[in-house]
Structures are given as C-alpha cells and as structure tokens.
Amino acid sequence: MRFNDPIYLYLLVIIPVMFALMAYAEWRRHRSMRRFCDAEMLPLLMPDASKLRRWTKFIILQLALALVILVLARPQMGTKVSHEKRNGIEAIICLDISNSMLAEDVQPSRLRKSKMLVENLVDHFSSDKIGLIVFAGDAFVQLPITTDYVSAKMFLHQIEPDLIRSQGTDIAAALDLASNSFTQQKNIGKAIIVITDGEDHEGGALEAAEAAKSKGYKVFILGIGNTSGAPIPLGDGEYLKDNSGNVVMTALNEQMCRDIANAGSGTYIHVDNTSMAQERLNDELAKMQKGDMQSVVYEEYDEQYQAFGILALVLLAIEVLISEAVNPWMRKIKLFKDRRNEIHS
C-alpha cells in the first residue's frame, strides 16, 4: 500500500498528544472530586458513572480521527503484476532542469510545459518502454527504462531544478548516459528525446549525438522557449540578476539544437504554446521500427480511501450511541464496568 498524499500522515502525531491530554484531564478530574468526598464514597454518589465508558468513547474518537487522516493521505494499492509481450519502441527522455527552464516565455513555464509534454507522451504510449534522465550541469537517471507508466508519471511530478546543484546545460552528459541506458535488445527502434533550451551549452554534444547515431539510436531535440530571451523568475516576484545587478535573460539556442539533432540523425522540434510539437513528436516516433519485448506490467494503483472513510463513520456512530453513564435499561448487560461494582471488589 502507498499513500498519494503522505504529507497528511504527519497529522497522526495529534493522536498521542490527545491521549496525553485525556490522561491529564482524568487526573485533574479525579483530584477535584476527591476534594469533596472520600474515594470510597464516590461509587455511591455516582452510581451510573463509568470511567471505562469515557475512555472507550475517547479511544473510538481517536481511531476515527486516525482513519480520517488516512483518508486525506489517499491510500492506494496495486492489485496486479503480470508479464506481457509488447510490440513497441524504447525511448529515453532527457529533461533539462537548469534554472533557465523556469523562464515563462512558454506558459506556464519552460519546465512545466516540458513536464506536461512528457506526461502526454507517456499517455500516448501503450506498448513502448520509457526511461527518464534529468540534467543540468550534470546528468543522472531519474527512472530506468520501463513500461511502468504510473511510476514514470510519479517520478516526473517530483522533478524540480534543485535536484541538481551544478548549473549549466551539459547535453553531452545526458546523451552519453542515455546511450548506455537502453536494453540490449536488437531490432527495435531506440530514441533519445532531449528537451532543453540549450542555454549555457557545455560543449561535446555534437560528438555525443554522433556516437549515439553510430549505435543505431535517433536523437530528437525539442527546443523550448523563444530566441528573443526571457527573465528567470525566483518565485518571490523577483528575477535572477547577475553580479552587476542586471536581470539575466535566457534565450533558446535554436541553432545548437538543430545541429545536435542533425548529428544524431534525428529531428529538431520547436516547443511553443501550441500542441504542434507534441503531435510532430508522436508522428516521428510512430515511424520508428517496433519490436517484440517482454515487460513487467504493474496495474495502476486503486484508491482505498473509501473503506477507511466508511469505517470512520461507523466508529463515529458507535461513539454517539455510547453514553458516559450506565443506561438503566442495560444494567443487566455487563459490557462496561460501573462504579457500583468497584465498591464490592
């Protein structure tokens, strides 16, 4: 079982705090009552009182609260793992997460637009394998090549520029890493899809693209942004500035993107605010050779919060039906110990 919003699980710390407060309140209550009469007289003065009933109601409420917190955390469970034979291609996406990708010349921003494009690409896949690499001044594998599209989307949502401290746009490192991340299967189309603005290009990308081409891979470059440049927002209404106090402008290096795509025997596609780039990429990938491959398929997680919610409602109903005092009609049913029994013990 997994939780889609695990942040809410931290609220469970409220429950031990509530138990501590309840214990303190019971101690204060007992001390106050002993000021007015002897402890042995309390059962005679309060024959219908039941300490066990109060604690039972309290515990039921805490259980209901815990279940409500679990509902907020959205518990999910995968129900099926199977091995399937699929016919498709292998694609590794290299996503630029340098700070320049925060520019908003493409709405809502270059990075968010890129993530939306990748998510739509995953939705378009049905029998293909996909891998995910993130890069800036360095590159690392975010998701090894897989057919688990649910995990692909989950990892995609976690991508932010602070995953890599080293700034820059080292496309060569991303291409080299992608070239070594495919499976060893033959006779199947393999594509490297690089989504970048090409800002602060580190060099060596043309050679890396040619090396990928020599292995039979195609390199597609999706250039995002515009060539006129845009400022880089810092999230507080301010923009990134250089040492002289001038606002830094980041522009798409379109010529460099074209050169890398040509060196990698692929295609350059410009990403703007339309869906044209998505459609063109889908068309290009559809032309690639498909091959049979064995895949482990994980069924999408099913929401399980309904059961927790129903159980919470049942517990709340039980708590309402239980009174703190002993019901005169239920005296013969000894579900709870009343104070009159205590004096005879």
Task: Show the helix and strand layout.
Layout: E1 2-3, H1 14-34, H2 42-45, H3 51-72, E2 75-77, E3 81-88, E4 90-96, H4 110-124, E5 129-135, E6 139-146, H5 149-157, H6 171-179, E7 190-196, H7 205-214, E8 218-224, E9 230-231, E10 249-250, H8 254-263, E11 268-271, H9 276-286, E12 291-298, E13 302-303, H10 305-321, H11 339-344
Parallel strand pairs: 4-5, 4-7, 7-8, 8-11
Antiparallel strand pairs: 1-2, 2-13, 3-12, 5-6, 9-10
Helix pairs in contact: 3-10, 4-5, 6-7, 7-8
Structure description:
With 345 residues, the chain is of the alpha/beta class. Helices cover 39% and strands 19% of the residues. It has eleven helices and 13 strands. It has helices at 14-34, 42-45, 51-72, 110-124, 149-157, 171-179, 205-214, 254-263, 276-286, 305-321, 339-344, and strands at 2-3, 75-77, 81-88, 90-96, 129-135, 139-146, 190-196, 218-224, 230-231, 249-250, 268-271, 291-298, 302-303. The strands form four sheets. A six-stranded mixed sheet has the order 6-5-4-7-8-11, sandwiched between helices. Helix 4 packs antiparallel against helix 5. The radius of gyration is 31 Å and the shape is elongated. 29% of the residues are buried.
Distinctive features:
345 residues; alpha/beta; six-stranded mixed beta sheet; three-stranded antiparallel beta sheet; 39% helix; disordered C terminus
Structural class label: alpha/beta
Strand order of the largest sheet: 6-5-4-7-8-11
Number of strands: 13
Strand composition percent: 15-25%
Query: Span from first to last CA?
Result: 47 Å
Major sheet: 6 strands, mixed
Tally of helical segments = 11
Mean pLDDT: 84
- Report Rg: 31 Å
Unreliably modeled segments: 338-345
- Helical amount among residues, as a percent range? 25-40%
Q: Provide the succession of SSEs.
A: EHHHEEEHEEHHEHEEEHEHEEHH
Shape call: elongated
